Amino acid sequence: MKRVIVNGALGKMGSEVIKAVSREPDMQVVAGVDPAISTMSRNSYEGLDFYSELEEAVNAANPDVVVDFTVPSAVMDNIRLCMDKGVRMVVGTTGITAEQVDALKAIVNRDDWAVLIAPNFAIGALLMMRFAQEAAKYFANVEIIEYHHRQKKDAPSGTAIKTAEMINQVFNGIQPDAPEHGEILAGARGAKSGGVHIHSLRLPGYVAHQEVIFSSPGQLLTIKHDSTHRESFMPGVILAIRKIDTLTGVIYGLEQLLW
Description:
Elements: E1 2-7, H1 12-22, E2 27-33, E3 50-51, H2 54-61, E4 65-68, H3 72-85, E5 88-91, H4 98-107, E6 114-117, H5 123-135, E7 141-148, H6 158-170, E8 191-193, E9 196-202, E10 208-216, E11 219-227, H7 234-243, E12 249-252
Parallel strand pairs: 1-2, 1-4, 2-3, 4-5, 5-6, 6-12, 7-9
Antiparallel strand pairs: 7-10, 8-9, 10-11
């Protein structure tokens, strides 16, 4: 039985992870962690102990895996803590950049530990990113529009950043040939990652959605993925929990377990 701590357990994703893990016969949620628990009952979920600090939970619950859906400002410290204690991690917190992943790889000092950092756990989203990278070999112009709920704390999304990184890998240093346009209002053209403009929408009614729009003379190609419910991420989270024991070091992207 794999023992799992959910960090960020009172958030929308954390709550969904607790339900998903609890349905699996070979794993068990042994604790939840969330700073908000200090103002709430420690027994918000029947039979599950809650803690306000991750270190306290790890010391008390002796987990095999910590699943982290917290905030960008806290996640790197959480990863270092789990590395020091030898507890493997599955990280779904977004806002982690490729540069931070590289920096983390440089400080990982144990060969019996692993962390998997995934900007997106939905299989359809992974395919969207893969298809976008393939299309980028044939189009010189591309922009990303990502749509999320208003409570999302980071922009652009981790998925959009990862998609742009994958696209930029196949541009071979050649930037799109569209001319630069002056912005009458700052930010009108969105953020820019290499040769890719990224536009972030934050509106009620959305969960997680992304369009990658390619163009060349006379044609447009749009690759789109929609997550209409957070349950779309759970098969990927469960897969990562099951596979984490077979991994070593820092793994960036759930696709590393799929192809």
